[in-house]
Specification:
By secondary structure, this protein is of the alpha/beta class. The chain contains 14 helices and 21 strands. Helix 1 packs across helix 8 and helix 10 crosses helix 13. Keywords: Aminopeptidase, Hydrolase, Metal-binding, Protease, Signal, Zinc.
Length: 566
């Protein structure tokens, strides 16, 4: 997400030990080190290259992409990987759609015959993933559908068979139990403060589209969304999607957010109290509410562009089970060249997000290549367009280059910490699958412990490139070091909190830039941790499993026969 750009480089915000004092760029780490066989100095060099001016912020379908892809292929070749892309090559082409909403010629809600104008970015934020030049909606009825959740396995249905065809769905952000009080029927049904996929705005738009809505608006509140209204409107009406190759998986034509106060006023004009409806929406007996007399009219221009981007994929073919796969991945893209709040050109380099993940994947690939050939094929993916909506990994999951039913595990690395060794590590979406248990066991061998993320209400498990694989049934582990404050060997939790606060101030901003003063030993520990877990899977014929309570368990069960019944 976007936020205000700081003039100060991120590196200047935290005191760290110079990496040059830890290990040379040419010497392997000691075999006894908790980050072996990963090399912190080589990781730093890779991040520095990816975040350099030459790579122009690595925005998809730009010269920055061309340079990034060429560099990645060169690294894969140097390591000794085999091409894992299409037609025996290193890449998989990803067709992208880019849209941008223009200034509406009309945008209002009519209630009881009186028009209530909606000011773009102040009262409402709009976007579209439809490749059309104009979106016209004429007096579409508006229906409040609570949290917009249909979850049969949790005995929950906000829709109750309401007809949404040709209508505007309005719903609340997060899960139905996010604001639940003790004793309410919904309390704990969706994991309490831990967000499920039903709480994500992406799910809500998808469900509205499946039910025929022509528009979908989420009522914004900062606690439920985990970010302020300024973050909602930051993309400026621009949206990205993969090019859909079927007619049944179409997005809702007009999607967006209603600013909280504007939503309250709109409901009040229709004789409804939004605060009361919020409480009613936390009851399984909730019934959709047609907003009395309210219709939305919009006439919005759209600019459309078709782009071509690329995933970069290398592999090591398995010696015993070559048709079975273990996958490591990170996204190569960042936000490219833009302007700051004063209109000056800046490069949003994405050094930590996710140059650190790419550096880790390269180190893991080197470790596999240096050892005996794994029993299973191991793939190493560098995804495009994660920052545009997990699009590179989503395209792969829809067009896999190895069968997903026989993909034993996906390990995704997205943001590693640069503040040194730690006593702990974090697991995202704790309790989802057996790989997370394996991660905790492996951490003990490093002298560390694993704990759940500290802000599960943010739904980090549903916001990185492992998600398309989870939705396809593949067991996953996500290593995301912004999951909480690390208990650092130097400075403890307070130092970990200071690092995390400084990093989040630069999240997706120009100050996420490389520094020679980083201490990458902690990042290397985390890379070595997922290497250890994945190596055990790669050298076995066991199949990691989803936990019984996971929303992805049933999907994996459907393909059990392809794995020999497990």
């Amino acid at each position: 997400m976007h936020s205000m750009i700081s003039r100060r480089p991120f590196a200047a915000l935290i005191p760290v030990v110079a990496l040059a004092t830890l290990t040379s760029a040419h010497a392997a780490p000691p075999a006894s080190s908790p980050w072996a066989p990963v090399d912190p100095a080589r990781m730093s060099a890779a991040i520095g290259t990816l975040a350099s001016d030459d790579f122009q912020g690595r925005s998809p379908a730009t010269e920055g992409e061309a340079r990034t892809v060429a560099w990645l292929i060169a690294q894969y070749r140097k390591i000794g990987l085999e091409p894992g892309g299409e037609a025996g090559g290193w890449t998989q082409e990803v067709p992208l759609l880019r849209t941008r909403i223009g200034t509406p010629s009309r945008l209002d809600v009519t209630i009881g015959g009186a028009a209530m104008p909606l000011e773009l970015k102040k009262d409402v934020y709009l976007a579209t993933l439809s490749p059309v030049e104009r979106i016209r909606i004429d007096s579409a009825p508006m229906v409040f559908v609570g949290y917009g959740v249909h979850a049969p396995e949790r005995q929950w249905d906000d829709y109750k068979n309401v007809d949404l065809k040709g209508k505007i769905a309005v719903f609340l952000i997060n899960d139905p139990d996010f604001d639940a009080r003790p004793g309410e029927p919904v309390a704990g049904r969706f994991g309490g403060r831990t967000m499920t996929y039903y709480g994500r705005w992406t799910y809500k738009y998808e469900e509205a589209a499946r039910r025929g809505a022509i528009g979908a608006l989420i009522v914004h509140d900062t606690p439920g969304a985990s970010y302020p209204w300024t973050t909602v409107i930051a993309p400026g009406g621009e949206a990205f999607d993969i090019v859909r190759d079927n007619t049944t998986d179409r997005p809702v034509p007009l999607q967006g957010w209603l600013e909280g106060d504007a939503a309250t006023r709109l409901f009040a004009r229709a004789g409804l109290d939004l605060a009361t409806l919020r409480v009613k929406a936390r009851d399984p007996a909730f019934q959709p509410v047609t907003i009395p007399g309210a219709t939305l009219t919009a006439d919005v221009p759209v600019s459309v562009a078709h782009l071509r981007s690329h995933n970069v994929i290398g592999k090591l073919t398995g010696a015993k089970y070559p048709g079975e796969t273990v996958m490591y991945g990170a996204h190569w893209d960042a936000f490219g060249v833009g302007t700051d709040t004063q209109g000056r050109p800046v490069i949003r380099r994405g050094a930590i997000d996710d140059g650190s993940g790419i550096a880790a994947v390269l180190e893991i690939a080197r470790a596999f290549k240096a050892g005996p050939k794994p029993a299973r094929t191991v793939m190493f993916a560098s995804w495009t367009a994660e920052e545009r909506g997990l699009l590179g990994s989503t395209w792969y999951a829809a067009h896999p280059l190895a069968p997903l039913a026989k993909t034993a595990a996906n390990f995704t690395i997205d943001v590693l910490q640069m503040a040194g060794p730690a006593h702990n590590a974090f697991v995202i979406g704790a309790g989802q699958d057996s790989l997370q248990d394996d991660l905790a066991t492996a951490a003990v061998s490093q002298g560390r412990t694993v704990q759940p993320e500290t802000r599960p209400e943010r739904g980090a498990f549903y916001r990185a490139d492992h998600l398309p694989f989870a939705r396809a049934g593949v067991p996953v582990v996500a290593m995301m070091d912004m999951a909480g404050p690390y208990d650092l060997l130097s400075g403890g939790v307070p130092a970990g909190e200071a690092w995390l606060k400084a990093y989040m101030a630069c999240y997706h901003q120009a100050c996420d830039a490389w520094s020679a003063n980083w201490d990458l030993r902690g990042a290397a520990e985390d890379a070595a941790l997922v290497y250890q877990v994945g190596r055990a899977v790669a050298f076995s014929h066991d199949w990691p499993q989803w936990k019984a309570g996971s929303e992805f368990a049933a999907i994996r069960a459907e393909s059990a026969a392809e794995r020999g019944g497990e």
